[in-house]
Amino acid sequence: MRSVYHDRKMLKWLPFEALEAQSDYLKALYHDMEKVEKPTLSPDQYASMQYTLEIALKKRSTVEIQIFMNHSINKFVGEIVGVDASQGIIYLQNQALFAKDIVNLKML
Predict the structure, then answer these.
(1) How far, in Å, CA of 6 to CA of 26, rounded?
(2) How many CB atoms lie within 10 A of CB 22?
(3) 43-107, what's its fold?
(4) Model-level pTM?
(5) In tens digits, what is the pLDDT along the chain, a chain of 108 residues?
(6) Burial of 3 by CB count in 10 Å (0-12 exposed, 13-18 middle, 19+ buried)?
């Protein structure tokens, strides 16, 4: 007797739909694992960054600034063209960065 294969079409894939919520949960879990907490800086680190900022502004040096933004550390490279102390903003050639978000500053 010859058996005839009866294709169940999409019915055979229905059990895997239950895993969609699990895959969404795992994606969210992995995304949360990549989040970084804002590092706490000591007064010495703030003083060192302040000194580096002043020197870089006077010499028109290129700097690398690391900013804490959206639970990650982002790097920006450029020349500091201005500082607005009243607003707490540091201006690079094409960007404005909030000083309160800086976690590291170094001259290149």
Answers:
(1) 35
(2) 9
(3) SH3 type barrels. (2.30.30)
(4) 0.68
(5) 566 766 666 666 666 656 677 778 777 877 888 888 888 999 999 999 999 999 999 998 899 999 999 888 999 999 999 899 899 999 998 899 999 999 999 998
(6) exposed
